[in-house]
């Protein structure tokens, strides 16, 4: 069974994330969505809320694609998380050149730590390239419409956070 790991903070999960998840399902039999605890970022949503949103939003994708998808919280090194879940592939989404420079460094470090785990980059679909969770939260905080960036359920969760 080929297992992939798609890590991120997912605070909140966006349509861009879901696009990468859907497209990654053709590469693996099982896709683990690694939800990073990352206290340094000070997430808006609790870890439990982020995991629940991932599970809810990915249920239909799993049913449509036949790929097993599960959420997995982690607070250790990415490469250690990949080993913990049995992943042979790390999936990373790219939006712009700036993303690539950071990811390039991370791949180099991960290869030193464990060269048996490959990293695969998927470019976000053009309609999702501008979406960033940080910007979505800012728009929602200021009362803007985030319906073009997140699912209706995630939008309701965001609105509830700022009411």
Q: How large is the radius of gyration?
A: 15 Å
For the record, give the distance between the C-alpha atoms at the N and C termini, rounded to a whole number.
Answer: 44 Å
Structural class: alpha/beta
CATH class: Alpha Beta
Number of domains: 1
**Succession of helices and strands:** EHEHEHEHEHH
- Give the overall silhouette: globular
Report on the architecture of this protein.
With 163 residues, the protein is of the alpha/beta class. The chain has one domain (3-126): Rossmann fold (3-Layer(aba) Sandwich), CATH 3.40.50. It has 6 helices and 5 strands; from the N terminus they run E-H-E-H-E-H-E-H-E-H-H. It has helices at 15-24, 47-65, 78-85, 97-113, 133-141, 152-162; strands at residues 3-8, 30-36, 68-74, 89-94, 118-123. Strands 3-2-1-4-5 form a 5-stranded parallel beta sheet, sandwiched between helices. The longest helix has 19 residues, at 47-65.
In short:
By secondary structure, this protein is an alpha/beta fold. The protein has a single domain, classed as Rossmann fold (3-Layer(aba) Sandwich), CATH 3.40.50.
Keywords:
single chain; 163 residues; five-stranded parallel β-sheet; 6 helices
Give the topology, please.
Layout: E1 3-8, H1 15-24, E2 30-36, H2 47-65, E3 68-74, H3 78-85, E4 89-94, H4 97-113, E5 118-123, H5 133-141, H6 152-162
Parallel strand pairs: 1-2, 1-4, 2-3, 4-5
């Amino acid at each position: 069974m080929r297992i992939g790991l798609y890590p991120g903070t997912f605070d909140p999960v966006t349509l861009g994330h879901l696009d990468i998840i859907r497209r990654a399902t053709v590469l693996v039999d099982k896709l683990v969505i690694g939800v990073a605890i990352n206290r340094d970022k000070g997430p808006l949503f609790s870890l439990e809320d982020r995991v629940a949103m991932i599970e809810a939003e990915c249920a239909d994708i799993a049913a449509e694609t036949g790929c097993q998808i599960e959420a997995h919280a982690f607070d250790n090194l990415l490469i250690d998380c990949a080993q913990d879940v049995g992943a042979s592939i790390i999936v990373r989404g790219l939006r712009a050149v700036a993303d690539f420079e950071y990811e390039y460094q991370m791949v180099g470090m991960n290869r030193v730590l464990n060269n048996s785990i490959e990293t695969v980059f998927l470019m976000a679909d053009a309609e999702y390239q501008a979406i960033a969770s940080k910007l979505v939260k800012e728009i929602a905080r200021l009362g803007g419409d985030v319906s073009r960036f997140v699912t209706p359920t995630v939008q309701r969760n965001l609105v509830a956070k700022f009411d």
